[in-house]
Amino acid sequence: QNVTQTVEEEKPEPPTIQEIKQKIEKYNAKVTNCLLMKLNDDGTYTGFIKVHLKLRRPVTVPAGIRPQSIYDALKEVNLADMTDKRTSFYLPLDAIKQLHISSTTTVSEVIQGLLKKFMVVDNPQKFALFKEMRKDGQVLFQKLPLTEYPLYLRLLAGPDTDVLSFVLKENETGEVEWDAFSIPELQNFLMILDKEEKDKIQQVQRKYEKFKQRLQQTLKEARGKPG
User: Fold this and answer.
1) Which partner from 62, 112, 142, 212 sits 20 to 30 angstroms from 49, CA to CA?
2) Which residues form a coiled coil (predicted)?
């Protein structure tokens, strides 16, 4: 009788504190700014990552709320809880946010931290963190699992963002659990999709209208020529 067994792939052994120390020293030697990594006594380490925000769709933010102050940050005041009013807002395309994180900070925590900094109240499942790599003149994106540690990836790749960078994008892989969203959020999604559809229709109509005008002008000029 044939028995099929699931064989788990052997995961590499986690690096020792000494190996981490050597990697951090090598990393810091290449840093051209003050954004160094620091090793702690317990073997964890802290450092900085930069995340590019490449969001094509608007996000939901509290309406009419002042920006967060230093006092609010120190007291951990969540301004989003101070009002039930919501509005849609386009974040600047390709904005860059710098985060100071730990080696134990996961991708899930990075996404939640970014949304909190921009006071975005959308469900974090709408978003995904990607690593962007350049190889042979091509730009490659790979979605990171929620349990991955971005700072460790940064340490392995070095400080050069041309080798590796992080990008926050919409989660469009079909893994979004729509049941987790409220009815107002789902209605907001429909409004956004309706607007995008109308904008696309107008773009196509303008494109072919210009093409039609050029053809008509060419025909008019051709009729005026002899022969």
Assistant:
1) 62
2) 194-221
110: exposed, middle or buried (Cβ count in 10 Å: 0-12, 13-18, 19+): buried
Q: What is the pLDDT along the chain (227 residues), one digit of tens a residue?
A: 434 444 444 556 778 889 999 999 999 999 988 899 999 998 999 999 999 998 888 888 777 554 444 344 444 445 445 456 667 777 777 788 999 999 999 999 999 999 888 888 888 888 999 999 887 778 888 999 999 999 999 999 999 988 899 999 998 755 555 665 677 767 777 887 788 788 889 888 988 998 899 898 888 888 877 65
Residue with token string 């080696």: 103
Letter for the amino acid at 127? F
CA distance 169 to 109: 15
Architecture of domain 17-60+84-170 in this structure: Roll (3.10)
Q: Is 111 exposed, middle or buried (0-12, 13-18, 19+ CB in 10 A)?
A: buried
Where are the domains positioned within the chain? 17-60+84-170, 178-224
**Count, residues in the chain:** 227
| Tokens encoding 39 | 């090793």
